[in-house]
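Sequence in, structure out. First:
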Amino acid sequence: MTTTTRPPAAVGAPAPERGGTAARTLRTALAPVVWGTTYLVTTELLPPDHPLFAAAARALPAGLLALALSRTLPRGSWWWRAAVLGVLNIGAFFPLLFVAAERLPGGVAATLGATQPILVAVLAVAVLGERWSRWRLAWGGVGVLGVGLVVLGPDAVLDPVGLAAGLAGAAVMAFGVTLTKRWGRPEGVGPMAFAGWQLTAGGLALAPLALLEGVPAQVDAGALAGYLWLGLAGGLVGYTLWFAGIRALPVTATALLGLLSPLTAAALGALVLGETLSPLQLAGFALALLALVAGQLAPRRAAISGAAPSAPAGSPATAPPAR
């Protein structure tokens, strides 16, 4: 009897993705849940008036730690690709997010951020060549409505600069997510190493801004714990799970999971800070949850219409995107 043995895995190659789509979706959803703790940690633990320092402290140490653990550096064109993705997903996104948060009520900023799935649905057509998904586009709109009901208050002030920063932040992150899906990641590179490349690039872009802003005069034990949480959980673990999910799941469905971030922040405000949610806010909460769950599914007709058409017999196959 002849037996065959599998060749040994290459050193440094990532472990195969475990579980089905539901398991991968749940793992990816942990990232925006963790990111939803950022507001609570920032307001309750970190020194005030140093958002860029907090952003750099969240990104750069986590990126360097990921590089040390994975011992994998970019090669060839991935040096500039990692830099571009790091600036889009982290280095440019964080400052825009903080400008929006400083000039707008938190609810307005969160609602603008919730438009990201709609932008991703549009970019998926332009950048990835996908067909329109009316299903996910519609549920993206429902998600924005739900988040708006949860976090918008009657006294919301619409500052023009804050609005521009909030929309630009959502657009930058949406483009970064879509481009991450377009380029994928190199063979033999795991999600932690991939996250480390981008966190390091984004952190290096943020470092000069953080130095201009200044270092907090005092960092107590609570602030140190907050920085560690944002860096390890929100940076290293969160982005590792997020980039693994972008590779394995439909890009618009992954973006819809981002709705969990403002919902988590609202839930923590109620549970930890004693904030109350009105019946209208609870209805918006349920609506946003319905949108992100429905966005993970697709009607059979939509799935068929969104599939790439088969090449006619004898025609050359479409080449995969460059990696």
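Second:
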Amino acid sequence: MPAQELDYLKKNVARKFLRILLLIISVVFFSTIGIMIIEKWSFFDALWHVIITISTVGYGEIHPLTEAGRIFTMIIIVIAFSVYAYGASTIAYMVFEGDLKKYLALKRLEKMISQMKNHTIVCGLGRTGLAAVQELHKEHIPFVVIEKDHEKINKILETFHNIRYIVGDATNDEILMKAGIKSAANLIITTSNDSDNLFITLSAKNLNPRVKVVARASEESSIPKLKMAGADEVISPNTIGGIRMASIAIRPNVVSFLDIVTQHGEIDLRLEEVKIPDDSPVHGKLLKDVQIPQKTGVIVIGIKREDGSFILNPVSTTMLLKGDTIIIIGTTEQFEKLKKLISGEDS
């Protein structure tokens, strides 16, 4: 959470507790002065009488009370119990509904976010950001949302009750740090303001040069600027939307198939990737020798080499190397089998 929000809640809770404490001290002080004046007692005797009276300890009177003293003592009891009732109701509200509950919840959320590693940060909760959050949630990928509009956060919490979020401006380095940018694996920037996206990209890459940044560009002219700022990928929703509309009109069956493998429709078919680790038993072997389709059932449609080059529709004599990323189509079960095969767990 932003430091400002936590500080506000902390100060508000402290202020309410201080108000209750001051009320109690005031009752004790003025009651003690009143007893001293009415009964002509010493300050200590009067204070002792007031304390045992409002605390209901019931040790008995240390000196006989006059009628005026008894009336004043009754008034003390009524005022003290009114203060107790006010204090108890205020504390109960803070614990169960008010600022104390919110403060403890925000501190707990802040602690959970600080412990996250290799997670994804989503900046912005517009339509693009919401779609990204839905996909990450569906894939069970740990993520943190940064959004400065509290209403958008409240709205998404109605659907995703346990998401981790920060209410704040992602252009602020402090907010990125609180989201765990230094330990994050990915940063998805979806705000509609290209200038903000550029600034966030620069800040993120400065704080963590290893983080993969996927940024949105509303204007085509912003794409090269975002890439110069360090964005690994730049997406233009308008361009993608236009291409998709044309594709649906020209080749509807191809688009329907891609929807199945990219959006996880009713058919359990996925377009996935798996990276070959350094200690993988498949390193240095040919595709035909590893027998990926026969052992797992997936279809290998491409291989991305460690140098960034792609091999589309690799042939059986293609050699697999550590650092390669294999791109496949298959079911969830088949994909899990492939991961075990690549890591050597099934041997």
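Remark: Strands lie at 120-123, 143-147, 164-167, 186-189, 212-216, 233-235, 270-275, 299-304, 310-312, 325-330.
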